[in-house]
Write a structure and sequence with these properties.
The protein has 426 residues and is mostly helical. The protein is built from 15 helices and 3 strands. The two termini are 20 Å apart.
Length: 426
């Protein structure tokens, strides 16, 4: 069964969630870049036909300003048919692109004077950074966007900036509900190990023996934070409150911060032990203050990345002001977290809360349906993007410079698009 153009765009709109008639009219025009401007009579005739074929179903109605609004929702049959139609369109696009490549030489030439050809395998390799389930639903569409842009700009391979942008966006997409649950369970296991080390240390000190267990449990505490904090970042990213690149960068900086904090704790313990015995302080002990300053600065940077990513979704604040606010918020928050990290087993409570949140929000009834969002500002030289799915992000940071994206550290400004990106789209 093939879909008409109007039926295709209506199903695409309903794939984003429950909609009433006016929302469908507005969204189909937006998703198709104005190509599908349905009249009310055409819309409701098509809706009736799709409902008769069990591709959509009525989902209640409400009265607003004295007028009844009837809502619709796509069915599993409709989702399967939309997916099949999308794959057919992707095959058609690939075939047409291959024909155009053979019929029309590119204006830009390579180093030796031969026409520059887009080498698809190099762009396809970039998709490996995304989760497998994400690639299965959106990989071909994103690949088509990148190939179209490369052909329009006369490139044969992705640039270094494109590789980094896709890497950050893909790895950030891996931070989701499943990753949050794994991080929470791992954090609980590390807490139990810390409890065991603490118990052994108490027993050994009671016998008058000062062993490695006396400080191993406190040195291990920051390592638990290196697991739990990325779990919370994945949870926030999954709910569409933090862009994927910012989530990944913040998680990576947090892990490095916790590692440096662990080394700093060990350095302080070595220094105190040397001072108590009157022995010379070893090199690691002399580095305790630089290490403490280092992990403090890194903690501020991690919090600043999170804040600037959140502000990039919720506000249109200028980049300089957004960065300033992020740093001002990051300093006290990082200081508070550093003090909290001194409390033994502090990560047990956050780990338990993360487990509960991951299990509760993972239920189908608690899944947050994506809402329409404005696309980020892109340069006029960038080709128009396919709108086969509203949850496909535009090519992440393809050739937009960091000054234009307005994000901390030149991260791609995906804004609210990441609310559309899920590890498993129905």
């Amino acid at each position: 069964m093939s879909l008409s153009s109007s039926a295709f765009w209506i199903l695409t709109s309903l794939a984003n969630g429950r909609r009433h008639g006016y929302q469908i009219l507005r969204e189909t025009a937006l998703l198709s870049d104005g190509a599908a401007r349905l009249k009310p009579t055409t819309l409701y005739a098509t809706l009736e036909r799709l409902e008769g074929k069990d591709l959509i179903r009525s989902d209640g109605q409400e009265v607003v300003d004295g007028r009844a609004r009837r809502y619709y929702r796509i069915t599993e049959t409709g989702i399967d048919l939309l997916a099949a139609e999308t794959q057919a369109l992707e095959r058609s696009v690939r075939a047409a692109r291959a024909g155009l490549s053979a019929a029309r030489p590119r204006p830009q030439t390579a180093r030796w004077g031969w026409p520059e050809m887009v080498e698809e395998q190099y762009y396809r390799q970039l998709l490996r950074w995304y989760p497998r389930s994400w690639r299965a639903h959106h990989g071909e569409v994103l690949l088509g966007i990148m190939l179209d842009e490369a052909e329009a700009l006369g490139r044969s391979r992705p640039t270094v900036g494109q590789r980094w942008s896709v890497f950050l966006h893909g790895m950030g997409t891996r931070l989701g509900m499943q990753a949050a649950l794994r991080c929470a369970v791992t954090g609980l296991i590390l807490c139990l190990i810390s409890f065991a080390l603490f118990g052994i240390a108490v027993i050994m000190e009671g016998q008058g023996d000062d062993t490695i267990f006396s400080w191993a449990y406190s040195a291990m505490t920051p390592l638990s934070g290196a697991v739990v904090v990325p779990g919370y970042l994945g949870l926030v990213r999954e709910r569409g409150l933090l862009p994927a690149p910012h989530a990944f960068v913040a998680a990576a900086v947090t892990v490095l911060t916790c590692i440096v904090a662990t080394v700093s704790n060990i350095a302080w313990m070595i220094a105190f032990a040397a001072i108590d015995t009157g022995a010379p302080v070893p090199l690691l002990g002399r580095l305790r203050i630089p290490l403490m300053v280092t992990y403090g600065v890194m903690g501020v940077l991690a919090v600043a990345v999170i804040v600037t990513g959140t502000l990039s979704i919720g506000t249109r604040m200028h980049a300089a002001l957004r960065t300033s606010v992020a740093i001002m918020v990051g300093i006290p928050v990082a200081a508070m977290m550093a003090i909290t990290a001194l409390i033994p087993f502090w990560v047990f409570g956050p780990s338990l809360v993360l487990v509960i949140l991951s299990l509760v929000l993972k239920r189908p009834g608690h899944q947050q349906p994506p809402a329409p969002s404005a696309s980020p500002t892109t340069p006029t030289s960038q080709p128009s993007q396919y709108a086969l799915h509203a949850d496909i992000p535009k090519h992440p940071g393809s050739h937009v410079h960091s000054e234009k994206t307005g994000t901390l550290g030149g991260l791609p400004d995906t804004r609210a698009q990441d609310a559309f990106v899920h590890e498993a789209h129905p």
